[in-house]
Structures are given as structure tokens and as C-alpha cells.
């Protein structure tokens, strides 16, 4: 089957006897959950696959499913792991009952993200086994292995992939689906109550498990040593960096290679290759996670080349050409970049409701000397680019509201937050409560397009509930204003925003119109239903 | 057999369906495939590309190294030039000639034409006009694929079979329009 890396992981999980996936959409991890939602076998088995409100609720629900003995998967992009870090780290303290795999897709080069954080650090931090597949087949094969490992060592397993692994297709050989686990409670049920006395005991257990986890990594079939004749360089290559290395040597690498796909780092294997080679080259996608550990602080016997020593760039994705340079191999002769080509940044779609929102804001805010608009994560972040240049910040999910509040605390007026519907339910509601409790003079625009648009139009957890949520949190009824954001409704939008800016308390404006991408998809689906294909 | 292909254009122009047809045809020939795609933010009217690699030997990297692409298939002329450093010295560019202007500083088309004139292997086709005049306005991308067929080194029959498989669920009209488009492309590449 020709599968995206994400799809290979999804199918690998289903075939390993998965009982449920929990996730919030985030590039490049979204397609894992979508594959399970569309999978026939998953539907027949009634596997949980609905989108969650955020990564924290997803992680906690997955841990709950594990508690009753079932195999659970939780998927997210790298910054999502920050959102659920509390539960993730503590899930190593509770341990698991049914196998639990935490799949995190990192985005080096930041194709669709606001940082390049490397999730392998979290695996080490939480003291759990971490896997990093190097190709789609291995990603598929690793899922069954990951669930077996999780249940054997009684810990969640972190699986880390990067963008090219997630969003590249290859042919994958697949097997048959296993049965799901039977419902059963953990043997050590009381250990799940992380009161200090119990947590201390569990901390000792997990800490004492580390040599065993190391031994498993040393012996893992995914950490492979390939010997070769030329011992000038020994190479450590993790995850997809291994592919770029192999691309440099179509007939086989002339240097000894240790391929690393399971952590904790296999120290003995690394010592072994280092002892037979004159230098080490470390190839890893992301931050210098392996290199930092191999270097330590004290001087080593042999030179180490990698991201810290400058042979490879510290930031951005790896590729074959960068690996060639690090190896001192010549790159293919190539054309110079064409000077007439100009950048073509992404933009809000023509006809998108967010456009009317930014147009109105820009018009109104001309009248205020110090107005600032705090942005958030979603399509509408593109309002920061020309022609609007309307945003002063974009930091993390929900930060628009709380940053506007903090700035208002410091005297900013008007302080405006622009947040999408899905981002608001993800992490904006708690910030709204803070603002309501202090009656902060801020104006919040929840630009509601009825979907999670940026990641491709997934269901949004709060659809049809926003007025009720805002009322429930305590925003006065008369300051919850709904408006239709279309170009011919500009007068009303402008009037309402002006009124609410002048109100010295929390107000919420909800411009509501369906995303034009999902609207046209829904129209096509309706048309397809009424006129069946003529084959 | 090895063919490294860069498919490019602007988000929403349908480069992934070209990739799907090539992928299907390559699968049927028992070739190895790797296809790296762009999802997420850049799809919104920005430049998009997909690296498609097919080979009779196993493929390591998901990405095509510099100077190694055999073919660039582009739905937009400036986008074709964006990936020039990846094109092999003997490689082919098959591109739509119609600019997609959604940025203020889009270069003068004459300048772009001059850039293409410096290259030896270029097929420059007004696929939108061809699609319209043949009453298949929605199949412009398959005209482009047809024009690339020879450069790709894939049999026409295999591509036709792939169109049958991929578009079957959309009905005979859609299949026929796409095959018609493919053949128009083949003819114009001669």
C-alpha cells in the first residue's frame, strides 16, 4: 500500500490492536487521526477517533483508556506536547496498563510552526523509551513493537517523527489487525494516585528501570550497526537522517554506521563504534540531542563532527546535500537560483471571513494612537502579513486573550485579541475567565469559521456553543456580539467593534461565517449525493 | 530506471492529483516510490511543491538532492523557475505558461520567458487555453502530465490505466476528460 508516514503509523496502530486515538489537529500529525477516522476496520470496531479539544484533554483521555487495559494512541505536533506536558511526564509516574503510544511530529524548518523544538528531549526528561523511525515501513512495524514495549515496561512510549517522515508516501507491507485488549484494571491500581508518598515510590521504580530501558535500546532491532572498511569516520545516524546518508552512498556507505531509532541512547554501541574509528559524525534531524550527550563536558579521545561543531547547520531540516558537505563529498553541479523568482507567501483565501475582520480592525484602529491586536494560532495569523499587517503577536494557542489582558493591565488601550473558534476552545477559555474575573478592558474577537481550518477543516469542538460558553464564563450578555463577516456587511462590523472597544470591560465579538474551503467541500458533497456518478 | 520529479505550483492548483496518477502508474510497473508533499500553512495560496521519486532500485531520501531532478512539472511559470537549482543539467521543465498573479511584485512575464529561453529542455504550454478550447476546463493539469510523459519515461498506456483507476469513482465523463487531456498534452510535446 502507498501510504504517508502518518498513515503507516495509523494503520500500524490499528493493526496492533488499538482501541482509541485521541488528538487535536496539528501539522504534520493530523493525517494519523484522519486515517483512523476513515478506516473501515476502525469504524467496525468502534475505535475512538473523534477530535479532542486540545492535546491535554487528548493525552488524559488516552491515559484513561490505558487505565482500563486498552491500547491507546495520542497524536500531536511538537508544540502540542508542551500543552499536554503535565500529563505526559506524569504518565511515566503512573505507568500504563494498556499500551500507550504518544506520537509527536516535529517540524524542523518550521513549515507550519512557531518553533523547532525537538521532542526527543521530552522522552529523556520523562524517562520513557523513545522511538524514531527512519522510513514509512519502519514506522508501521514500530507501532506493534511500541505497544508490546509499553506494556512490557509499564511505561508510555514516545514516538518521534519529523515533517518529511509524516508527509512522504512510500509503499508499505502491512499485516492483519490484532484483537483489541480485553477490559481490565491495572494490577497496581493504587499506584496511579500520585500522592507524594506514592509518587516517590513510583519515581524510584521508574528511575531504577532506566538500566533496563538502556539494555533494550542496546539490543533493539531498530538500532543497527553496519560495519565497513574505512574507519576514518564512524557515523551515528538517527531517524530519517539515515536516509540522507544512504542517498550519498547508493552502493553502500564506506564508513561504519550506527543507525539509531530507539532511545535511551545505546551507549555501549556508541562506545564501540567510537573505539574503532578516528572520528565521529553525528547526523540527526532537529536539535543536537545525540551530539550533546555524546560530547558531554570533558574532552574526548576523538573529534566529533555535527551541529555543534558546525559541519551541519544548527537549524532547519537536514537533506542529502547537507550530509554530503559534512562528509566532504562533492554535490551535483546545478543551476544557480533564478533571480527573477520572488517569494510567494501563503495568504488568506479570497472570500475568507477573516479578511473582513482585519479590514474592519485596520479601519477602526487608525483612530487610536496606541491600539494593538494580539493574534493567535490559525489561518488568521496570516493577517500579520501584507496587505493587513494587523497583528502584534502570535505566540501559542490562546495567548491572544491573556496577552491582551496583561497589556491592558499595564495600561494599553485599546487591547484587542483575535482568536479562532477552535483555538478559543483549545486554550482561550481559561484566559477569558481571568479577564472576566478582573473585568479587564479588552475586546476579544472570536473569528468563527465553524472549523479547524488551517489543518484542513477538522471539526471544531465549540461549534454552536460560543455564546453559551462566553455567557457561562461571565461575559455580560449585551457584550457578546455576533456579526456576519462579509464585505457588504462592513458597516455593521465596524459599528459593533467600535462600540465594544469603547466598553470598559470584557467584550466578545463573534464574526461567524463558514470557512470557504469547507463550504465548497460541503457543497460538492451535497452535489455528489444528489447526482450519483454515471459509471 | 530512475525518475526524480518536482511537481510545483500554487496551493490549490492540483499538483497532487498529477502526483497520484504518476504514483499509480509507477506502482503498476512495480517501481519503488517516494513522494514528499506539503501540507498545512503553505497550502493557502503560497508556493507548493512535491518531490516524487520513482525508481527500479530502492530509494533512500524522500527529498531530491540539488541538480538531480529529471523533470520539473509546474502549473505556473515562475514556480517552475523556483526549483531550478534542483534540475539536472539534462533535465526537462514542463510548465504552464499562464502566470498565477496573487502577489504585488510578480515579475514581468517577458523576463521569465527570457529565463526559460536560456534553458534547452523546456515545454511551455498554455494548458488553460488548451483545456478550454477542448471543452475540458477542469483537466488542464492532465494536459501538463501528458506533455511530460516522454520526459518521465512512463508508457502512455500505463498513465491511461492509472487515470482509469484513480478517477473511476468520479464517473466515466471525468475519466474520459482526463484521458483526452493527457493525449492533448502528449501531442503538444512532440
Polypeptide structure, described:
The complex is a heterodimer of chains A (535) and B (190). By secondary structure, chain A is an alpha/beta fold. Chain A is built from 20 helices and 18 strands. In chain A, the strands form four sheets. In chain A, strands 2-3-4-6-5-11 form a six-stranded mixed sheet, sandwiched between helices. Chain A is globular, with a radius of gyration of 26 Å. Chain B has one domain (2-189): Pyruvate-ferredoxin oxidoreductase, PFOR, domain III (Pyruvate-ferredoxin Oxidoreductase, domain 3), CATH 3.40.920. Chain B has a six-stranded mixed sheet with strand order 2-3-1-4-5-6. The longest helix of chain B has 18 residues, at 172-189. Chain B is globular, with a radius of gyration of 16 Å. Chain B starts with a strand and ends with a helix. Classes of the chains: A alpha/beta (535), B alpha/beta (190). The interface between A and B is large, with 53 and 56 residues. Strand 7 of chain A pairs antiparallel with strand 2 (32-36) of chain B, so a sheet runs across the interface.
Index terms:
heterodimer, A: 535 residues, alpha/beta, Rossmann fold, six-stranded mixed β-sheet, five-stranded mixed β-sheet, 20 helices, globular, B: 190 residues, Pyruvate-ferredoxin Oxidoreductase, domain 3, 6 strands, 42% helix, 23% strand
Protein topology:
The complex is a heterodimer of chains A (535) and B (190).
Chain A: E1 2-4, H1 5-15, E2 18-23, H2 30-38, H3 40-45, H4 55-67, E3 71-77, H5 78-83, H6 85-94, E4 100-106, H7 120-126, E5 130-131, H8 136-153, E6 157-162, H9 163-166, E7 168-171, H10 196-219, E8 224-226, E9 234-238, H11 241-248, E10 257-260, E11 262-263, H12 267-276, E12 280-283, H13 289-295, E13 304-305, H14 320-327, H15 353-365, E14 372-374, H16 399-409, E15 415-420, H17 421-437, E16 442-447, H18 466-473, E17 480-483, H19 490-502, E18 507-511, H20 516-530
Parallel strand pairs in A: 2-3, 3-4, 4-6, 5-6, 9-10, 9-12, 12-13, 14-15, 15-16, 16-18, 17-18
Antiparallel strand pairs in A: 1-7, 5-11, 8-10
Helix pairs in contact in A: 1-2, 1-8, 4-6, 11-14, 15-19, 16-17, 17-18
Chain B: E1 2-10, H1 15-28, E2 32-36, E3 47-55, E4 69-74, H2 77-82, E5 87-96, H3 109-117, E6 122-125, H4 127-133, H5 140-152, H6 156-167, H7 172-189
Parallel strand pairs in B: 1-4, 4-5, 5-6
Antiparallel strand pairs in B: 1-3, 2-3
Helix pairs in contact in B: 1-6, 4-5, 5-7, 6-7
Amino acid at each position: 500500500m502507498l501510504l504517508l508516514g502518518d498513515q503507516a503509523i495509523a494503520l500500524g496502530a490499528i493493526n496492533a490492536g488499538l482501541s482509541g486515538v485521541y488528538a487535536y489537529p496539528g501539522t504534520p500529525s493530523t493525517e494519523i487521526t484522519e486515517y483512523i477516522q476513515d478506516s473501515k476496520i476502525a469504524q467496525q470496531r468502534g475505535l475512538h477517533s473523534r477530535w479532542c479539544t486540545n492535546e491535554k484533554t487528548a493525552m488524559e483521555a488516552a491515559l484513561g483508556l490505558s487505565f482500563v487495559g486498552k491500547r491507546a494512541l495520542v497524536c500531536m505536533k511538537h508544540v502540542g506536547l508542551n500543552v499536554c506536558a503535565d500529563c505526559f511526564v506524569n504518565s511515566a509516574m503512573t505507568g500504563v496498563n494498556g499500551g500507550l503510544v504518544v506520537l509527536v511530529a516535529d517540524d524542523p524548518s518550521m513549515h507550519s510552526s512557531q518553533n523547532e523544538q525537538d521532542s526527543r528531549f521530552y522522552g529523556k526528561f520523562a524517562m520513557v523509551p523513545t522511538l524514531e523511525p527512519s522510513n514509512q515501513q519502519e514506522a508501521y512495524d514500530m507501532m506493534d513493537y511500541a505497544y508490546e514495549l509499553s506494556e512490557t515496561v509499564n511505561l508510555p512510549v514516545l514516538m518521534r517523527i519529523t515533517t518529511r517522515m509524516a508527509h512522504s508516501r512510500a509503499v508499505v507491507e502491512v499485516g492483519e489487525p490484532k484483537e483489541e485488549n480485553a477490559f481490565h484494571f491495572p494490577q497496581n491500581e493504587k499506584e496511579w494516585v500520585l500522592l507524594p508518598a506514592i509518587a516517590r515510590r513510583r519515581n524510584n521504580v521508574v528511575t531504577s528501570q532506566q538500566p533496563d530501558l538502556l539494555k533494550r535500546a542496546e539490543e533493539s532491532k531498530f538500532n543497527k550497526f553496519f560495519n565497513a572498511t574505512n574507519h576514518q569516520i564512524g557515523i551515528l545516524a538517527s531517524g530519517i537522517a539515515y536516509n540522507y546518508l544512504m542517498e550519498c552512498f547508493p552502493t553502500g556507505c564506506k564508513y561504519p554506521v550506527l543507525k539509531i531509532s530507539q532511545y535511551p541512547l545505546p551507549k555501549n554501541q556508541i562506545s564501540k563504534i567510537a573505539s574503532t574509528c578516528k572520528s565521529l559524525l553525528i547526523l540527526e534531524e532537529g536539535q543536537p540531542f545525540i551530539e550533546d550527550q555524546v560530547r558531554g563536558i570533558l574532552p574526548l579521545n576523538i573529534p566529533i563532527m555535527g551541529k555543534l561543531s558546525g559541519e551541519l547547520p544548527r537549524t532547519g531540516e537536514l537533506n542529502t546535500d547537507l550530509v554530503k558537505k559534512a562528509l566532504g563529498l562533492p554535490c551535483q553541479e546545478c543551476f544557480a537560483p533564478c533571480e527573477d523568482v520572488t517569494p510567494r507567501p501563503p495568504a488568506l483565501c479570497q472570500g475568507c471571513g477573516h479578511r473582513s475582520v482585519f479590514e474592519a480592525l485596520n479601519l477602526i484602529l487608525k483612530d487610536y494612537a496606541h491600539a494593538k491586536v494580539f493574534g493567535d494560532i490559525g489561518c488568521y495569523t496570516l493577517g500579520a502579513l501584507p496587505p493587513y499587517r494587523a497583528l502584534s503577536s502570535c505566540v501559542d494557542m490562546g495567548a491572544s486573550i491573556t496577552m491582551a489582558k496583561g497589556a491592558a493591565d499595564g495600561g494599553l488601550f485599546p487591547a484587542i485579541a483575535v482568536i479562532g473558534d477552535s483555538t478559543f476552545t483549545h486554550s482561550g477559555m481559561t484566559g477569558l475567565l481571568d479577564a472576566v474575573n478582573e473585568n479587564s478592558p479588552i475586546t476579544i474577537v472570536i473569528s468563527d469559521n465553524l472549523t479547524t481550518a488551517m489543518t484542513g477543516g477538522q471539526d471544531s469542538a465549540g461549534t454552536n456553543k460560543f455564546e453559551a460558553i462566553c455567557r457561562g464564563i461571565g461575559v455580560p450578555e449585551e457584550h457578546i456580539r455576533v456579526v456576519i463577516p462579509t464585505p457588504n456587511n462592513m458597516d455593521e462590523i465596524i459599528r459593533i467593534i467600535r462600540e465594544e472597544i469603547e466598553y470598559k470591560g470584557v467584550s466578545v465579538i463573534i464574526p461567524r461565517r463558514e470557512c470557504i474551503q469547507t463550504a465548497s467541500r460541503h457543497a460538492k458533497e451535497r452535489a455528489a449525493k444528489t447526482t450519483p456518478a454515471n459509471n | 530506471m530512475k525518475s526524480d520529479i518536482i511537481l510545483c505550483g500554487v496551493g490549490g492548483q492540483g499538483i497532487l492529483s498529477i502526483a497520484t496518477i504518476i504514483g499509480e502508474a509507477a506502482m503498476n510497473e512495480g517501481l519503488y516510490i517516494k513522494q514528499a508533499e506539503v501540507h498545512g500553512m503553505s497550502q493557502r495560496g503560497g508556493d507548493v511543491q512535491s518531490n516524487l521519486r520513482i525508481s527500479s532500485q530502492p530509494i533512500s531520501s524522500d527529498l531530491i538532492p540539488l541538480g538531480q531532478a529529471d523533470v520539473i512539472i509546474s502549473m505556473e511559470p515562475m514556480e517552475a523557475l523556483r526549483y531550478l537549482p534542483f534540475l539536472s543539467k539534462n533535465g526537462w521543465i514542463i510548465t504552464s505558461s499562464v502566470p498565477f498573479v496573487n502577489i504585488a511584485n510578480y515579475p514581468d512575464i517577458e523576463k521569465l520567458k527570457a529565463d526559460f529561453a536560456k534553458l534547452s529542455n523546456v515545454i511551455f504550454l498554455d494548458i488553460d487555453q488548451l483545456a478550454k478550447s477542448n471543452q475540458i476546463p477542469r483537466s488542464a493539469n492532465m494536459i501538463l502530465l501528458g506533455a511530460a510523459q516522454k520526459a518521465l519515461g512512463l508508457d502512455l498506456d500505463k498513465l491511461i490505466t492509472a487515470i482509469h483507476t484513480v478517477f473511476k469513482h468520479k464517473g466515466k465523463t471525468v475519466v474520459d476528460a482526463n484521458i483526452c487531456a493527457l493525449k492533448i498534452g502528449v501531442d503538444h510535446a512532440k
